[in-house]
Amino acid sequence: MSCPDVPVHPTLPPLGALKVIGQRLPKVDGLAKCTGRAKYADDLALPAMLHGKILRSPHPHARIRAIDTSAAEALPGVVAVITGRDLPVPYGIIPWTRDEYALAVDKVRYIGDAVAAVAAVDEDTALEALDNIRVDYELLEPIFDPEEALRRTDVQIHEPRKPGQNGNVTKEVRLAFGDVDAGLAAADVVVEGEYYFEGTTHAPIEPHCALAVWEAEADGGGRLTVWSSTQVPHYLHRELARVLGLDPARIRVVQPPVGGGFGGKSEPFDLEFCVAALAMRTGRPVKILYTREEVFYAHRGRHPYRMHYRVGARRDGTLTAVDAHIVLDGGAYASFGLVTTYYAGQLLPPPYRIPAYRFHSTRVYTNKPACGPKRGHGSVQPRFAFEVTLDKLAERLGIDPIELRRRNFLGAYTRTVNELRITSNGFLACLDAVERASDWKQKFRRLPYGRGVGVAGSCYISGTNYPIYPNSMPQAAVQILLDRSGRATVFTGASDIGQGSDSVVAYVVAEELGLPLPHIRVVAADTDLVPVDLGAYSSRETFMVGNACLQAARTLRCRVQDAVAAAWEVDPAEVLLRDGQARWVRDPQRAMPIAEAFQLAEAHFGTLAATGTYDTPKDIHGAYRGGTIGASPAYSFTAHVAEVEVDPETGFVEVKTLWIAHDCGRALNPTLVEGQMEGSAYMGFAEAIFEEHIFKDAEHGRAGLHHGPSLLDYRLPTSLDTPELVSLIVESVDPEGPYGAKEAGEGPLHPSIPAIANAIYDAVGVRIDRLPFSPPRVWRAIQERRARGAG
Amino acid sequence: MRELLTLRVNGLEVEAAVPPHFTLVETLRYVLGLTGTKQGCDKGDCGACTVLLDGVPVLSCILPVQEAVDHEVTTVEGLVGRGTAPGEPHPLQRAFDECGAAQCGFCTPGILMSAVALLERNPRPSRQEIAAALSGNLCRCTGYTKIYEAVERAAARLREDAS
Q1: Domains in chain A, number
Q2: Which residues of B touch A671 (CB under 8 A)?
Q3: Cys-Cys link to A663, which of A343, A637, A649, B41 (CB 3.0-4.6 A)?
Q4: Most A-contacting residue of B23, B144, B148 (CB-CB within 10 A), to test interface
Q5: Model pTM score
Q6: ipTM reported for the complex, 2 dp
Q7: What's A570's domain CATH number?
Q8: Chain B residue at shortest CA distance from A44
Q9: Per residue in A286-305, is it b (16+ CB within 10 Å) or e — as a string?
Q10: Quick one: which of A402, A420, A385, A340 has its CA closest to A170?
């Protein structure tokens, strides 16, 4: 008896054969979340736990001359105070740009930069201790404007990495593919435009929280456990080891259920280092919970981009060339900025065939909270600029904008001009779906003044082809253990932040082993218990962890089939595992409970456990420097139509409906896919109309202070503000995704913003090339148009 | 210095020794261990801390705990068994689970409390009425659509049970 090797990308079972995949099943943790049983980071408490607080800089740019903590330390109830001198090792999520400290060592670079941390018996005492820390600052000139940061060499926010460089620049990328100048010269029409995308933040409803405990070991060392509301337990594990100078084998990172991330919890933060250091210092558990204000200053949200595009097309609408120039306002630290700078250009070409493309993107530091990855990392802003440009082109050429997009369709199983390998591509089906559902042909340029529709398309990655730190280990791994009671336990490092990765692995196991969902336990995101996973970012979990899980589950299925087949003396391929039973396909009366089948298999093979791994194919991108960034094993495609009503007297834009068509490869659970589509479209809508992460200037208050770091002032749309969201799932069935699945968590955000911008133009004839489309801005544009006598 | 209060939470009388400045949410979470109620902003902006006070939704993060004395407090934990068999989740909780209305789940307890108050006074709400009832509860994950579907499904079930 032998089990054949199970391929990483097994042949797709025929659609009709799937029993679990494609069903609208509940999530494995759904009821726990709906009954208050799920324990998030701040729901945890340990005996003798101390409460930590972090002192933050009131200055946007200053040198720290001295810190006096003696008065704080003398307060009754204060157990420990630490400063940057205690944690002098720099960290950063990207290994090439480690430019942050757990607590500022000699300089602060934004209002809110962490300076010192205390642990005390309760929160009140910890706050009082902060008031008693004296910091002597030497004020430095701050820079808030990215163009100024580029120009100025006399004020350096960071030391230049190499002599002669400007220390205010994180990264500069210049890439060119094809002959752009010739393409623009050959164009019948060139549309040139300047766009500005205001920064926005994630605003998850759960504030960041971390809890640490240090336990002494017999060898004189100890063991550190950190629970954190992180999206990336593995990267946190690595950085904790670096900064604390601890052997990573002594560190355990546990990610409890996370109350929303959206990219805002995808790198280490000061609080995680502080709880760890304070727990080690005091020997007692220490917890820190951010206030809502601290969440706004921790930020790592969407970068403000200044973008300049020149796009050429022939009379028939086919694109000839794209030339882009982008400045990214990075804030005080690098964060993921190196990648963001590439993504600003690399992810633009699909879903279109662009014969020549050039981009120049530069990320600069400013004295504001650091920007980082927010849902649709780096590519949401260029997508806005480009899809609005396409709308302008379509109008200049007298071509319907959906038709213009069809004419430039990239195709499936091809490569983009920047050499990204494209597999399945359902973009045309997405365009068809939104065109039909929105009744586009009856509405576009036909609705009365004040009402309009707009379209936009986009593309996004299903995970990045390479991990953040170079290594040749698998991108994802899953371990499954079968119990003789008829139960499976899945051990996965995947971070469920609400998107449902715990459920996805359970669905895969349920499908392959014929188990009911309650018989599947998922143990996730605990570095002591599960194989390494890189975390919930870049829409990688379903594709990569799903594939790893499928491999492990098929290995075990095969063993169970073999053992049952041997007992029945039939062909193993004829043993079906379904509905909690093993059945012979030729005679369904011949069946046994799955627990009995597991017992037969355990008797044959020993303990039933298997691992599965997934690694990305390595020949799917260009060989040029930076060619690996933006490469993904599969791309999702999306099209939106937005319908808006604009009040020309107030400039108020009401988005009535967003039709969202998304090619997710295959919907493993349509309910969860729709949830991602609707949540993404909502978040894009919010950025289009409501949100801006902005800071005061010296004329309007304290320069560098957040304009309104609360969930009231930073305007999140409520249920009454949010448009009707119509999800239209498109399934292109990717040959390499698990059961054909690709991502759904980030792609469907992109077209919301340009679709709304284009709909505003259809409604009132004004182009708003700057976000957000707030009433004053829209009203002014309408007034200017009227002044020109145009309407 | 702590103050000893007697509260009525989820049908049970409980004693809680609280710092006098504590809000209701701090008391529920950090004194009584009822961590189902969440705190997202601590200043009345997000609605994650919504609980029922005598059946009416209130923001427990801006309610001094003393003001809850002599009132019936209901939290998400108390929805289990409310009009259902002991230990059985409320039809709203089941519907939220089935419809994918809880993604990260952090706003869910507060939304459930607003929704239960709505259905107890209006068994057949329109979508607009649901949106209005939930407008004090921010959800960052769902775009609200699945939440509406869940409230509608639960309302239909409750009407069936009542008839």
Answers
A1: 3
A2: 99-100, 146
A3: A637
A4: B144
A5: 0.97
A6: 0.98
A7: 3.30.365.10
A8: B35
A9: bbbbbbbbbbbbbbbbbbbb
A10: A340
